[in-house]
Design brief:
The protein is an alpha+beta fold and about 120 residues long. Helix content is about 35%, strand content about 15%. It has helices at about 5-10, 35-50, 90-105; strands at about 20-25, 60-65, 80, 85. A 4-stranded mixed beta sheet has the order 2-1-3-4, with helices on one face. The longest helix has 17 residues, at about 35-50.
Length: about 120
Amino acid sequence: MPSPDLRSLASVMGLNAVKRHIFLCADQTEAKCCAKEAGLESWNFLKKRLKELGLSEHGGIARTKANCLRVCSGGPIAVVYPEGVWYHSCTPANLERIIQEHLIGGKPVADLQIFA
């Protein structure tokens, strides 16, 4: 059973409100799917934009920077759960579409999906 401190921390972080979780391949040890700088640019955009829109913490969207999602082409790569939708070419502009259409609107962005 988790300790009260762990539950308190998770509650403060808004984990009990999470409806969707986006993982973004960025800051890789060995950049393969895209240049390291491109991955970090996308990650910084994602963090900033989710916060601006009030989606971070208690807003229902969790984000995780992944070292590698093992799809080493067409990056930055992202995956959104619980749907399990995988995206390629996650530039800031494309992430904006993913945020608006999928994370907020609930409709995956077909032309950016690896599997559609």
